[in-house]
Amino acid sequence: MACAGCGTGADGKPAGCKSNGGCSSGGCNRLNVFDWLSNIPLTDSLAPFDIIEVSFNNGSRKDFFRNSTKQLFEKGEMVAVEGVSGFDVGMVNLTGELVKLQMKKRRVEDTPEVKKLLRRASTEDMNRMSDNKKRETEALIKARAIARSIGLEMKLAEVEIQADGRKATFFYTADDRVDFRELIKIYASEFRVKVEMRQIGARQEAGKVGGIGSCGRELCCSTWLTDFKSVNTTAARYQNLSINQAKLSGQCGRLKCCLNYELDTYLDALKDFPDDCDMIETAGGNATLQKRDIFKNLMWYSYDNSNKQYPLTITRVKEIRQLNRQGVKPEELKAVEVVTSKPNKDVDLGFADVVGQISLRSLEKASQKRKQKTKEKHKEHHQKDKPKGGGNQQQPGQSGGAPQGQQQARPQKEQRPQGDRPPRQEQKPRGDQKPREQRGDQKPRGERSGEPRGEQKPREPREQRPPRNENQPRGDQKPREPREGGPRPQGGEQNPREPREGGPKPPQQGGGGGQRNQNRNRPPRKPDNKQPDNKQ
Fold first, then answer.
1. What are the start and end residues of every segment in region (Disordered) (predicted)?
2. What's the domain count of the chain?
């Protein structure tokens, strides 16, 4: 468990081990012990226990020291303790009466040979320890290279240098015995320290490295587990686990320690199952035991020539075994039907399943109304832009016309024939043809167009425009071909024109939008009764 004071302190920093920002032991659960007796006061006749527990190297190593200074130390304080030919710096891990229980658990006796606690660590001690700790990574790399050059079958896991820099402990793993007498001499001359070689197992190595297990939690060996018991595949068989080496192995490469956690519970449950029923005889053949289900108290059997499994109760298995001892083979196994438990439909679960009962028509109607409003807005906006090409309203004194939006319903304008053409006849608008609306962007045509069109901008006076030669082509128009020789080269037949003096211009058939656009830029012609001369 984590320490009780991991909440935020008064200054906004985390409390707990008072490392101000993160647990200095490498994690709140890294071989940590909660002192649940720390807040219980002692009687006046009892003095506090004078031995404290100190952890080193981020909690990976712990030892006991006698407090000869008679000072009170709290958990998380850095202290200087007696070391090998010098001193070492560690963190107070446990004080008080719980230290007695820890010493009893680790079989450490309270003797005068227990090392002493010297003082609280000073700033100089902390700086010296920090400098020596920085050398550990470089020393580990050099030590591995030296061991490889000698040809020793060993793996160095960690190097721990004492705070004063006078001793170095090399932790290694090896499958066989290693003769490192020559290696120690090389290390002593290379690092200039007293060398200690300590062999550890694969599980201790995984605890020093740390990591996350398959369960998603931090490794047990790096948090609270200190005593490692042997684990074998029998524990997996008792728990009906498949013998898969990849799934049953931990990060250390050995079987997971957690296989032993529930082993006792399974062993207690298996006491009710018969032991000598691995094979039973029936009239259909011999049936072999496949597995035991301790939760449903069933035993699963299968025949040698079939892969189908038959679940039997413990009572039925004992009956068949008793018959086999009498030399009787039963006709059938009388397997039990295993039914998957389903929740009762009549039970009121406190909620109703209304999936498919809620109508979405209201939402659909709102969506349709929204779309209709959008279409109407676009239509209104389009109609507002129409008066530039032609309005829908007629003004008095102006000739009516159909709006541009209805020009598609009009018959197309007949093309004028090329060459000579017959004289025009005045045409009247058809009955089914609506009068065209006035175009607001056109200028009056003067005498040629008759009456001015609605909402048209007046053109410049004739006096301000230069006279035009009648034989000169107008604007972007091509010169006309002679009319008497044949049809005009513009295609389509058209009735002959009437004199342009006087009355209004007769309405034309079809949507002659292109011709009207050309007439906009054409200057007005002077009225005359003469026939246009043939252009050469």
1. 363-536
2. 4
**Contact in structure between 141 and 159 (CB atoms under 8 Å):** no
Whole-angstrom distance, CA of residue 369 vs CA of residue 532: 61
Average pLDDT rounded to a whole number, residues 313-334: 89
Q: What are phi and psi of 237, to 5 degrees?
A: -70, -40
- The yes-or-no verdict on residue 172 having pLDDT over 90 is yes
Q: Is residue 507 over pLDDT 60?
A: no
Domain shared by 175 and 262, yes or no = no
Residues 257 and 311 in one domain: no
Together in a domain, 136 and 186: yes
Q: Is 85 within the bounds of a domain?
A: yes
Q: Residue 178: give the domain boundaries.
A: 129-200
Grade residue 477 by pLDDT with cuts at 50, 70 and 90.
low
pLDDT tens profile 213-271:
999 998 998 888 888 888 999 999 888 888 898 899 999 999 999 999 999 999 998 88
Residues 323-336: b if buried by 16+ CB within 10 A, e if exposed: ebeeeeebeebebe
Q: Do 239 and 283 sit in the same domain of this protein?
A: no
What are the angstrom distances between the C-alpha of 64 and each of 90, 134, 248, 385? Answer: 11, 26, 36, 95
Q: Which of 257, 255, 230, 258 is nearest to 245 (CA)?
A: 255
Geometric angle at alpha carbon 201, from 198 and 202, rounded to 5°: 130
248 part of a folded domain: yes
* Residue 252: inside a domain: yes
